[in-house]
Amino acid sequence: MSTTEAIEVEISGLSKEFDNDGQTVVALDGIELSIKRGEFLTLVGASGCGKTTLLRIIAGLELDYEGEIDLEGIPIRGPGVDKGVVFQDHRLLPWLTVEENVGFGLFRHAEQERRQLIQHYVDLVGLRGFEKAYPNQLSGGMAQRAAIARALVNKPKILVLDEPLGALDAMTRIHMQNEIEKIWRREKVTMVMVTHDVEEAVYLSDTVALMSSRPGRVKKIIPINLARPRNREDPAFQALRKEILTEFQLQTKAQFSYEI
């Protein structure tokens, strides 16, 4: 386990409501969650349970909520270079090359330092040789690696990933899971990810936070105490997968019954 006892993100009493055509929808209710420095934590839960909303709040992209959320003891008041974000869609700027996309936010750096940082993160995600390529010349996996490099180039304290592999085919997804783990190990950055893929959560995470159906609450914290690199066929791996999947399915059924 690469985590330390230092707390990177502290969430206390966090609640979030939306207005839906005049009706109040409670998306999150009383979230309590501590994320350790260097930890890989994954949020798992049924569709509509507020996972992405919580991720957006952690990233500083959503500010209208009740409760407290701190990054290294300082309240999160908005987006910033200390919080990197990777979406399901790579969101690369199509008129810029890989190196231009990666370095897009480095305008305050001297040119030599900027070039060194860009090359370091291009190399880190395995895109050396594709610096001059445009997004439409990349495969889905390559484009997502470029997006990860762009999110990391400012050396954020925390990287949030919203279904980052959801748009990829099965084989590319497995390859990218390995790539994300390698990047996490090398950069030692705190990662918080949302996924619907339970096996992916067990494979990558130190901790899985299982969320209840709407209103979203942290129902259960499941430590993934498995050695790395992980073997998907290992009985302990499969037991954890089954435990989370069973809880996940129960939440999905409960949500379906509620909506009916």
Give a structural overview:
By secondary structure, the chain is of the alpha/beta class. 35% of the residues lie in helices and 25% in strands. The protein has helices at 51-58, 98-102, 111-124, 140-152, 170-187, 198-204, 235-259; strands at residues 7-20, 23-36, 40-44, 66-71, 74-75, 83-86, 158-162, 190-194, 207-211, 218-223. The model is unreliable at 256-260 (pLDDT under 50).
Keywords for this entry:
35% helix; 4-stranded antiparallel sheet; 7 helices; globular; 6-stranded mixed sheet; alpha/beta
Helix and strand arrangement:
Blueprint: E1 7-20, E2 23-36, E3 40-44, H1 51-58, E4 66-71, E5 74-75, E6 83-86, H2 98-102, H3 111-124, H4 140-152, E7 158-162, H5 170-187, E8 190-194, H6 198-204, E9 207-211, E10 218-223, H7 235-259
Helix pairs in contact: 3-4, 6-7
Write a short abstract of this structure.
The chain has 260 residues and is of the alpha/beta class. Helices cover 35% and strands 25% of the residues.
Cα Rg? 19 Å
Q: Tell me the series of helices and strands, N- to C-terminal.
A: EEEHEEEHHHEHEHEEH
In spatial order, strands of the major sheet run 6-7-8-3-9-10
| Biggest pleated-sheet summary | 6 strands, mixed
What is the overall pLDDT average? Answer: 91
In what range is the share of β-strand residues?
Answer: 25-35%
The total strand number stands at 10
The global form is globular
Give helix % range.
25-40%
Distance between the termini: 42 Å
Structural class: alpha/beta
Number of helices: 7
Q: What kind of oligomer do you see?
A: single chain
Low-confidence stretches: 256-260
